[in-house]
Amino acid sequence: MSEVKKTTPGGGPSGGGWTRFVTARPRLTLLVALVLTALAVLAGGGVADRMGSGGWEDPAAESTYATKALEKQFPGSQPNVLLLVDAGTTGVDSPAVAAEARKLAERLGAEPGVEGVGSYWSTGSPALRSEDGRQAVIAARIPGDEKGAAAVLDRIAPTYRGTHGPVEVSLGGGLAVRHEMQTVIQEDLLRAELIALPVTLVLLVMVFGSAVAALLPLGVGIVAILGTNAVLRGLTEFTDVSVFAQNLTTALGLGLAIDYALFVVRRYREELAAGADTHTAVRTTLRTAGRTVLFSALTVAVSLAAMLVFPQYFLRSFAYAGIAVVLLAATAALTLLPAALVLLGDRVNALDLRRLLRRGKAPREGGAGWARAAGLVMRRAPVFAVVTTAGLVLLGLPFLSVKFGTADDRQLPVTASSRVVQDQLRDGFPGNPGGGITVLAEGTATPAQYAGYRDRIAALDGVVRAEGPVTTGGGTAYFTVVPEGETVGAGAQRVVGELRTAEAPFATSVTGPAAVLVDSKHAIADRLPWAAGIIVLVTLLLVFLLTGSVVVPVQAVLLNALSLTAMFGAVIWVFQDGHLAGLLGFTATGDIETTLPVLMFCVAFGLSMDYGVFLLSRIKEEYDATGDHEHSVRFGLRHTGGLITAAAVILAVVMVAIGTSRVTNTKMLGLGVALAVLMDAMVVRSLLVPSVMKLTGRLTWWAPEPLRRFHDRFGISENDEKDTYNPSDTPDVIEVSEEWREAASSRQ
Description:
With 748 residues, this protein is of the alpha+beta class.
């Protein structure tokens, strides 16, 4: 290939107003960033304490309406705090135990912020007494939002937990479970950060060689994480935000910052090695790699923004955190990083910690292995395309047996205090207290009509018993229905459907854990096509604007989706079916939380597109310069294969650190996304993309003439100003060695 004109140090292209803004006063840029980061630390302090640990319900659903109405008129019907009273061999019916239990219940009822107190000793309900007669329950409700209710629980828990005369009291219930889950998540997140940061730094040093260059991505990531915490703290003043979103903030903050910084620093070092001075190298980097980073950030942000269409604040919280951290990571990479590079100049290659390991060895040709691998794949393109696709589809087959459930106490480790209580209630009581189905009845009815309705619903298949009505005397009542099997199992969900269609002489609304799950599944199924449509359409548009082809965007979307099959198959095989449960330390419940596949798809799809944009932009840049399709594919893999693999490994390390959480959903998110990222980088980008692009040939870059004219006018390419060069002149990021230092010193 002929060598084309390269910009000279004195005659580099204008980088535009943005480049001049970033590089004109680099010290001022970094100082302003330091001040803003310090303010973000102050603004984001204590954000976790203001977050919620729920958010799986649809605010507009029938179950949500019934829950709020019952909470207002019948506080005792929706207990969220349970005192498990253990009398041991004495038995709960002993006069001394009964007297102590009544005293505890009376004292609890007098606590500010506690209402609807009831107990086995006041109601005689068999559901509140264990089958062996050793334990019984005092139930109560702490009303209000999650933060206010948690504050009340913190205040009263020490008073009631422990020994009281002849009984031992433990605390459980939904509120206690959610509160403990929030505490565990915060502790696990801190541990994950302590694991991820030093390991990431070591990997970056291995990738860059230079300790100076390795610190730059970490700096960008820390700025993005701290800034996002401040944004989330502000959002908690106006809306509910899930504490789970902090895990995504840490993972994406480090992962994407490292991706973007790797891409920017790598291109900057290429320009230095090719003879450019510092300012010219920065301008060219921003005009080329900078645009790719911008497009990548937009594709990831769109994937995460799609979760805003869902009504559950659990999913919406990840959109808030994801959009903020992506945009902040990209902004830092395109402002702070160039400013730092201007100040560092050639010193970005300083402190080459791999120099001793290379002593006496000839430097390797940068990226040659990736070019050879791409050539091999393209020579056997049909074989690699078919075998790789079949393998990915096979790995995804377990997802066909998916069963959806809802998060409960079994998300926590078996030693968690609230989990211990819930296990005892689940195993030792005839019906899980507070876990049944509740039917709200609104409208005037006679005692006979109430009794007739209760008898009809008690006769339904899958119903153990029906109790009630409990009335206000003003035309409102409720019934409690105990289903067979698991509280949110398939049988309980079927009973919810039958209750909603059962004839009644009054208006009915059904709630309870099973009803919340049914409504949540309906809300997700209703909005899922919109979310998928947004992701696909915007991704197609962005990739078209980047490449000018209508074939490449379709390939990108299909191959991205295919790269996620292994993740979804593994989620079912490991977390639903329970394989590796002992090794990974979680309790398999036979289902997965309804919102998790949506969340994992949006996150993993966005990250896969991140790598896809890196590869496609470099292939397109070379294709514009040479017109040689196969050479461009080899060139793209040669110059991004090491980059993408390094970025994927580092991001996987961060996600695995998140996956060490003791909360099952967080473990599933971290390990699942880590697997998806590695499969995408090491299988799809390395094998499937080059084989498919070989099969489509020059057709890969086809677009109808009207769309081609549209792209010529509105599209963005890294080659707007042609700075083409001989690919043999540019070493790959993964192979940085002495030639960098030699090239820099020869210009001084």
